[in-house]
């Protein structure tokens, strides 16, 4: 078997006569083609990607049709052909010269071997620098060869089988070892390099992101500072009205008096990167707790039952956490699909004076759990529907709503709770029960406010 080297291999099959494979001569009669083949070897070898020159030389013959065929496909119609094999395998290369007087042909069995020449987009680098959480992007480039199987490993764990590796996001600030292997029939190309993931800038999240925190007189405010990135050597400092009160990640302090108070946080790491945040704490005047529902086995007579179906009833706390860990609460539920406000009445005249003298108060406050419903509860008194002082937050957790009336309460009247209203004060529209329209609201810890 004869080997075709990387340099151009010339198959000398004769010297081309002046007439060659031309058809512009019209002789009186055809002259049979004559071709000599000095290279008698019919089994040859070549390499993927290397150009190979095939040439045929015709000694005689007029009005010839010439052709070079690779696996039956015509690739050239001239005495010479330069051909590059793009994939390994066994090929038949056939030359044919013919006219009306005869035909000459020769076939060669060419065995093409694969080759593997590669490099990575990082070049000769043994260490590159990227930032923590950045996506590592590197390409394996095949310079010569075919059918390459790719494998990328990070710290010994296989992460990708694609030539373009862009699926790893460097989660930690550390040095990673990246190893690549590309394999085909010719062998394996390997290269390893390190990736130094540098720490991201200092970033801290807080358990309470509200700029203003409202709390009752004497209540404890807790804020947790969680370092997300850049935590090397981080130090915390909490101040209240300019005075340092804590150097822990957790701030916890009881507030009493009139207020308001200013909480200031300052965090700094070893690179002198800083995070600063402030909150204003306002003190909510204590109200007169009227109902907490914890000790009831049934609702007392001052609540109007079955104004809707089923209406109000005692129920288990659907989310006993956060600001309300009570076990029992008041549930308002309206079955069906029609529009409703979910209303229910508190009959003030039925409340004993020795329990609470409602005439002293001009407002009401209660905890409410709306779930994922987009309801805007109102309280109706003396023919007017009062909106809450602050709008619901819709955080799928218990929250506090407060209502201020235009005058002191009259013990002969009712307070009508309408928890299922739209923002404009209209009833919720007709429609099926959905995740954001369950037609159910929970209420607890009702207080009267002076």
TrEMBL record:
Alphabetical UniProt keywords: Membrane, Repeat, Transmembrane, Transmembrane helix
Membrane-topology annotation of the record: Multi-pass membrane protein
Keyword Transmembrane set for record: yes
UniProt-listed Gene3D superfamilies: Immunoglobulins
GO molecular function terms noted in the UniProt entry: monoatomic cation channel activity
Chief location of this protein within or outside the cell: membrane
Biological classification of the source: Bacteria, Pseudomonadati, Bacteroidota, Bacteroidia, Bacteroidales
Domain of life: Bacteria
Keyword Oxidoreductase recorded: no
Protein's name according to its UniProt entry: PKD domain-containing protein
């Amino acid at each position: 078997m004869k080997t075709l080297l990387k340099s151009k291999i010339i198959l000398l099959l004769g010297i081309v006569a002046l007439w060659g494979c031309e058809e512009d001569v019209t002789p009186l009669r055809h002259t049979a083609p004559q071709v000599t083949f000095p290279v008698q070897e019919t089994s040859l070898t070549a390499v993927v990607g290397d150009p190979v020159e095939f040439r045929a030389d015709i000694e005689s013959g007029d009005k010839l049709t010439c052709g070079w065929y690779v696996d039956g496909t015509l690739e050239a119609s001239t005495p010479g052909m330069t051909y590059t094999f793009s994939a390994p395998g066994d090929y038949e290369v056939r030359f044919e010269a013919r006219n009306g007087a005869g035909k000459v042909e020769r076939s060669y069995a060419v065995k093409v071997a694969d080759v593997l020449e590669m490099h990575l987009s990082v070049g000769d680098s043994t260490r590159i620098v990227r930032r923590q959480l950045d996506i590592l992007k590197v390409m394996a480039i095949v310079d010569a060869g075919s059918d390459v199987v790719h494998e990328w490993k990070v710290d010994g764990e296989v992460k990708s089988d694609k030539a373009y590796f862009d699926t790893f996001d460097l989660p930690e600030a550390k040095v990673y070892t990246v190893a690549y292997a590309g394999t085909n029939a010719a062998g394996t190309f390997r290269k390893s390099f390190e990736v130094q993931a540098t720490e991201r800038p200092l970033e801290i999240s807080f358990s309470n992101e509200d700029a203003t925190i409202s709390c009752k007189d004497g209540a404890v405010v807790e804020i947790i500072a969680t370092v997300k990135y850049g935590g090397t050597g981080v130090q915390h400092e909490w101040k209240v009205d300019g005075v340092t009160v804590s150097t822990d990640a957790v701030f916890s302090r009881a507030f009493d008096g009139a207020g308001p108070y200013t909480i200031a946080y300052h965090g700094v790491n070893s690179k002198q990167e800083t995070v600063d945040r402030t909150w204003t704490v306002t003190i909510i005047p204590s109200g007169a707790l009227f109902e907490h529902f914890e000790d009831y086995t049934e609702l007392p007579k001052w609540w109007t039952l079955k104004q809707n179906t089923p209406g109000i009833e005692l129920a288990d706390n659907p989310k006993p956490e956060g600001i309300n860990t009570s076990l029992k609460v008041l549930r308002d539920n309206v079955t069906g699909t029609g529009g409703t406000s979910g209303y229910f009445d508190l009959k003030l005249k039925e409340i004993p004076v020795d329990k609470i003298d409602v005439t002293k108060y001009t407002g009401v406050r209660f905890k409410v759990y709306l779930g994922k419903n987009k309801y805007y509860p109102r309280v109706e008194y003396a023919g007017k529907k009062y909106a809450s002082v602050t709008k619901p937050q819709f955080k799928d957790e218990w929250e506090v709503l407060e209502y201020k009336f235009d005058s002191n309460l009259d013990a002969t009247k009712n307070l009508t709770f309408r928890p299922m209203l739209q923002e404009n004060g209209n009833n919720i529209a007709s429609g099926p029960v959905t995740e954001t329209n369950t037609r159910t609201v929970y209420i607890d810890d009702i207080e009267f406010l002076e």
